[in-house]
């Protein structure tokens, strides 16, 4: 009887061990991801530990059987996963996930921006979409770019949609955007700029003014041509957005809904009522539509414009100053009726 018991125990224990090993193998090497939440997005920064990743998996119920995941990771020497943006997919095993985090097999992310008030604003927008912080991005964006030196730097960063790695350095991000700017300025676009008597950087400067002057896609080309007409004749641009920009350079918190006569006297290189030609650089990061509005501006012979109260968002154009005064009086009366004095 005793011999029989020993034989039975001797059979049962190894079989049990085999079953446990088999079960453990399944947990670690078979599909172990909750399909109901896939694809699952995971962001890992430089300070994220595997324990924190595991805790996140538990909280979000990523693993069907979380047992053994942390043990496997530790066994493989995974202490800190490589930073990046990971997509956990249906059918992955615990072993596959650990290998992915160890090797840094991440997925790129899509980032975008349409415009920006300045480089600080652009850095802030980008920092919300990638790992790099706004300060490091700002420093990278300030790097001098050929063709957009000095105050022209805003025009070096072409608004678009980009595919990048989430943990790419600030320098890599800034360089990628700059290279896309170079790509936009194809021989055809450079030729159009040359026929207007402008460089790519100068087109960017004018486009930024056009963009701030009008938000209407069918109004912008007309505004652009008017400014081109004034440049051709050697007239001052007299663009209100540049005056507002000059005012805000001195007082960033200042709200300006109406440009006053005294504002036109501000001593600033961006005040196009006092300087001839274009200001030193763009007054914002110009968007694609504004750049194209300048490059493809249709011909007309208007030299004056004023906001049109009869068609909000658009401008009333005039060929001479007398006609402009009529439009200006209508706009001034409109502002006064609404008690908009600043």
How does this structure look, described?
- α5 crosses α6 (134-141), α9 crosses α10 and α9 (200-213) crosses α12 (288-295).
- The radius of gyration is 31 Å and the shape is elongated.
- It folds into 3 domains: 2-103, no CATH class; 109-183; 187-337, no CATH class.
- The chain has a two-stranded antiparallel sheet with strand order 1-2. Strands 3-4 form a two-stranded antiparallel sheet. It has a two-stranded antiparallel sheet with strand order 5-6.
- It is built from 13 helices and 6 strands.
- By secondary structure, the chain is mainly alpha-helical.
- It has helices at 2-29, 50-59, 69-75, 94-103, 119-127, 134-141, 170-184, 187-195, 200-213, 220-232, 240-250, 288-295, 321-337; strands at 40-44, 84-88, 109-112, 161-164, 304-307, 315-318.
- The relative contact order is 0.09.
Structure summary:
This protein has helices at 2-29, 50-59, 69-75, 94-103, 119-127, 134-141, 170-184, 187-195, 200-213, 220-232, 240-250, 288-295, 321-337, and strands at residues 40-44, 84-88, 109-112, 161-164, 304-307, 315-318.
Topology readout:
Layout: H1 2-29, E1 40-44, H2 50-59, H3 69-75, E2 84-88, H4 94-103, E3 109-112, H5 119-127, H6 134-141, E4 161-164, H7 170-184, H8 187-195, H9 200-213, H10 220-232, H11 240-250, H12 288-295, E5 304-307, E6 315-318, H13 321-337
Antiparallel strand pairs: 1-2, 3-4, 5-6
Helix pairs in contact: 5-6, 6-7, 9-10, 9-12, 10-12
């Amino acid at each position: 009887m005793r011999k029989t018991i020993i034989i039975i125990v001797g059979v049962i224990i190894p079989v049990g061990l085999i079953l446990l090993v088999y079960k453990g193998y399944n947990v670690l090497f078979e599909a172990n991801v909750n399909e109901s939440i896939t694809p699952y997005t995971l962001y890992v920064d430089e300070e994220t530990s595997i324990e924190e990743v595991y805790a996140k998996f538990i909280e979000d119920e990523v693993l069907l059987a979380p047992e053994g995941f942390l043990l496997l990771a530790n066994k493989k020497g995974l202490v800190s996963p490589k930073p990046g943006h990971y997509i956990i997919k249906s059918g992955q095993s615990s072993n596959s996930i650990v290998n992915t985090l160890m090797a840094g097999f991440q997925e790129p992310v899509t980032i975008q921006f349409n415009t920006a008030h300045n480089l600080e604003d652009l850095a802030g927008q980008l920092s919300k979409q990638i790992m790099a912080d706004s300060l490091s991005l700002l420093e990278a964006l300030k790097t001098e770019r050929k063709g957009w030196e000095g105050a022209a730097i805003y025009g070096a960063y072409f608004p678009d949609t980009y595919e990048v790695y989430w943990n790419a350095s600030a320098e890599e991000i800034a360089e990628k955007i700059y290279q896309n700017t170079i790509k936009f300025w194809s021989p055809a676009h450079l030729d159009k700029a040359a026929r207007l008597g402008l460089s790519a950087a100068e087109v960017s400067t004018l486009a930024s003014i056009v963009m701030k002057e009008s938000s209407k896609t069918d109004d912008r080309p007309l505004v652009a041509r008017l400014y081109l007409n004034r440049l051709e004749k050697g007239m001052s641009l007299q663009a209100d957005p540049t005056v507002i920009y000059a005012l805000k350079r001195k007082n960033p918190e200042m709200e300006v809904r109406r440009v006053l006569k005294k504002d036109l006297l501000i001593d600033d290189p961006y005040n196009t009522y006092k300087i001839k030609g274009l200001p030193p650089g763009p007054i914002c990061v110009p968007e694609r539509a504004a750049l194209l509005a300048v490059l493809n501006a249709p011909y007309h012979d208007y030299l004056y414009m004023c906001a049109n109260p009869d068609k909000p968002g658009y401008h009333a154009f005039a060929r001479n100053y007398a006609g402009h005064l009529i439009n200006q009086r209508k706009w001034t009366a409109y502002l006064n009726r609404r008690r908009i004095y600043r």
